[in-house]
């Protein structure tokens, strides 16, 4: 589903009205017919479309992040997926005020990068990761990863952040990332490693255990890469459940 299919950012247009528009043939901005709604709503929709076209042409995801309901942020994915940054962090614990970030992996434009504490994991590198993205994509990152990065590195996150945990719940995919991966058929190279093991691996690395850091990096990188697969899967499912079902009503 693309941003151009959406009318829900408009004040006065909720899910019911939007789906009625789709069912009556207004499946995107070009197909909008003012006669399908009242004159006041029609004027608001046309004004939104004019403004939104300019922001879309300018490749400005922030405008849409600010106008779409947070529950509909997944709709930005199709338009901005090419520059989306899928990221995941590992830490020594769950408290961003006390614990530290050990590795940050991010996957963008087919390339995966891992930053390691004590090497290249710096505030500048993390900020560059954020600034280069049109859309950040994580799993539970709004509550966990982003606060850690903001606290540990003073990162200013001013790009939209799609936390896949929430759209996953919408389509019935519950549990942590590893459980969701299993549910959609994603296989891992090391399915035996968990978040707790990531803490242990970092401690072993600090103690000089050979291979501990390599294993940790591999685990972290796989988290980031698999987020793209998950994003593709869940947004496709939502497209079918939200848009295609409403659109099919016009056919029937």
From TrEMBL:
Molecular function (GO) terms for this protein are: exonuclease activity; nucleic acid binding
User: Which parts of the sequence belong to the YprB ribonuclease H-like domain?
Assistant: 85-234
Instruction: State whether keyword Nuclease applies.
Output: yes
Q: Which InterPro entries match?
A: RNaseH-like_sf, RNaseH_sf, YprB_RNase_H-like_dom
Listed A to Z, the keywords are: Exonuclease, Hydrolase, Nuclease
Protein name stated in the entry: Exonuclease
Q: Which organism is it from?
A: Halonotius aquaticus
